[in-house]
Amino acid sequence: QVQLVESGGGLVQAGGSLRLSCAASGRSFGSDAMGWFRQATGKERECVAAITWSGGSTYYVDSAKGRFTISRDNAKNTVYLQMNGLKPEDTAVYYCAANPIRSDWGPGGPLIYEYRYWGQGTPVTVSS
Fold it and tell me: Percent of the chain beyond pLDDT 70?
């Protein structure tokens, strides 16, 4: 049974930091691109950050550049999202996902429909 389990979310003040973790099990994710997505109330789910199977390439949505860092440890089947300088607009449920279709992404960035395995989400609330 494939499982992605996120942890590390919570309540933090603006300017603070959180580190999200995603533990994957049930299959090898070493060849998959992995991504962190978020969905705020009333908004569409968006890709915040993604990382190729090797960790050699990363993607960040513009609003996350310079503040968030995605990393992965394939030996542990774990993906991380370090979030610094958090803002109230970062408030959302954050989801970890795996893309078994391809290990990277095209010029337009990660495509949400290619991410077939999803975690249950971890809420992040940033207070002003």
Answer: 100
Count Cβ neighbours within 10 Å for each residue of 90-117 and write b for 16 or more, e otherwise: bbbbbbbbbbeeebebeeeebeeebbeb
Q: CB–CB of 125/91 below 8 Å?
A: yes
Ordered alpha helix ranges (H), 12-61: none
CA-based nearest residue to 110, from 13, 18, 45, 54: 45
What is the C-alpha to C-alpha distance for residues 56 and 117, in angstroms, rounded to an integer? 21
Amino acid making up residue 44: E
What is the CB neighbour count within 10 angstroms for residue 122?
A: 21
Q: What is the mean pLDDT of the chain?
A: 95
Structure tokens belonging to residue 83: 């979030």
Kindly give the pairing relationship between strand 33-39 and strand 46-51.
antiparallel
Length of the chain: 128
Residues of the chain with pLDDT under 50: none
Angle subtended at Cα 60 by Cα 59 and Cα 63, rounded to the nearest 5 degrees: 165
Q: Can you tell me the distance from the alpha carbon of 8 to that of 13, in angstroms, rounded to the nearest whole number?
A: 15
